[in-house]
Amino acid sequence: MFKFLLIGWLAAGALLAQSVPSQLDFANLREDVRGLTQRVGELQLRVEQLERENGELRARTSSADKNFATAAQLNQALDDLSHTLRAEIAASKNEALQHVATQIEKLARQTNAALDSLAKSQASRPAVQTSFSDEYAKVGGSYTVQKGDTLADIAKKSGARVQDIINANKIADPSRIVVGQTLFIPKAPNAAK
């Protein structure tokens, strides 16, 4: 195509040269034709270079298509992963619920056993005293409870009556005296002075 343009320019230049036989015009025309010929050669080189680059890009694109996943493939993979993840979460949740249910049953059995034991021990305990008599000796001494002491032991050691010790110290549960506790021991009416 460029050659046809060049030939057209040359023909036009020849016609002009015949109509105006000026030497200067002819030289200018010849210079223009030489410049156009040079520009056409440069353009041909550029077209060849662009065709080479286009071929390289096509080769890279075809190899890239083989190496990369499509958007549809990625979406399918994400859907599969999401489905698997939901299934795993559901299975894990079920397993955790079963474990919790087993633990709750075990705790319920232990709680029931403890309540039964507590109920049995409450049934065998003497009733808690809530009213106390003022009929005991108002004179006496103090005693600090030692390890292994019972009210009966303390009464025997001091010569006092158990009921007087209970009334004087307002002990609601005689089985619950504490080591280190200080008790008032009323003096027995017949005890020696």
Provide a descriptive summary of the structure in words.
The protein is mainly alpha-helical and 193 residues long. The protein has 3 domains: 2-65; 70-124; 140-186, LysM domain (Membrane-bound Lytic Murein Transglycosylase D, Chain A, Roll). Helix content is 69%, strand content 5%. The chain has a two-stranded antiparallel ribbon. Helix 1 runs antiparallel to helix 2. The longest helix is centred in the middle third of the chain and has 54 residues, at 71-124. The model has no long low-confidence stretch (mean pLDDT 83).
Give the SSE map.
Blueprint: H1 2-19, H2 23-67, H3 71-124, E1 140-144, H4 151-158, H5 162-169, E2 182-186
Antiparallel strand pairs: 1-2
Name the descriptors:
single chain; 193 residues; mainly alpha; Membrane-bound Lytic Murein Transglycosylase D, Chain A; 3 domains; two-stranded antiparallel sheet; 5 helices; 69% helix
Mean pLDDT level: 83
Report the order of strands and helices: HHHEHHE
Quick one: how many beta strands?
2
Strand order of the largest sheet: 1-2
**Helix content, binned percent:** 55-70%
3D shape: rod-shaped
N/C terminus separation:
148 Å
Strand proportion, as a percent range, falls in 5-15%
The SS-based structural class is mainly alpha
Short description:
The protein has five helices and two strands, in the order H-H-H-E-H-H-E.
